[in-house]
Amino acid sequence: MDIYDFKNAFLIGFFMAFMIGPVFFMLIQTSITKGARAAITFDLGVVLGDLCFILIAYYGSRSLLEKIKDDPRLFFLGGLVLIIYGLITYLEKENKKEALESAKLLKVPIKNNYLKLFFKGFFLNFINVGVLAFWLGTVLVIGPTLKMDQNAIFLYFGTILLGYFITDLGKIFLAKQLKNKMTPPVIFRIKKIMGVILIICGVFLMLKGFIPNERIEELIQ
Q: How does DSSP classify residue 112?
């Protein structure tokens, strides 16, 4: 994996850390009420949930990945998954504001129980099927571009998780400021922006399956 791939993977992790949902608010709330150490423990559980999804997506779609390598047009599938996920994110109704607000108020046990916090982070992330859809689409796209080199693929996704975790550390230490600024209008503005980004990425990946790379580069320039 070259430095360009490393940079892209790290940026994906950075943007992922700002996907708004219960995990985002629980991380902020845990940091404020129980301190940085408890929040980091919770976040490690979240990262483990993502790692499990990556393994499920990779090994569950391995035969399809081999076909994509031989037939680039199947990039269409990975792009379609990202577009659907982006549309769901963008079109999410504002009546979910109350659910997001309640997520801010999720209670954390008064006594620090790090094992419980770890598994809370894991299960809160793992029960979100949308996260699996995101990783599936990403695996279907990234695998063939790395020539199905398992070491390169795992290094790429490890870099994504590293970028995600480092960004979360910043969120943990800036928790109070983030909590005050994450008003419902701001939350839904961010969600719509993230939805648009996912849709654009999905369209680009679908085109990649039908248009030669050289032609795509010309269009971008």
A: -
What whole-number distance in Å separates Cα of residue 22 and Cα of residue 128?
A: 10
**3-state helix vs strand vs coil in the chain, percent to 5:** 85, 0, 15
Give the closest residue to 61 by CA, choosing from 125, 158, 132.
132
Domain count, the chain: 1
The Cβ-side half-sphere exposure at 96, using a 13 Å CA radius, reads 14
Q: Say how many CA atoms lie within 13 Å of 162 toward its Cβ.
A: 11
Q: Which tokens hold the place of 111? A: 């006594």
pLDDT digits (tens, 9 = 90+) for 82-99: 788 778 777 766 544 444
Whole-number Å distance between alpha carbons of 5 and 36: 31
Cβ(165)–Cβ(43) under 8 Å? yes
Q: Which domain holds residue 92?
A: 3-220
Q: Identify the band that residue 194 occupies on the pLDDT scale cut at 50, 70 and 90.
A: confident
The model's pTM is 0.71
Joined together, the tokens standing for residue 57 give 């997506």
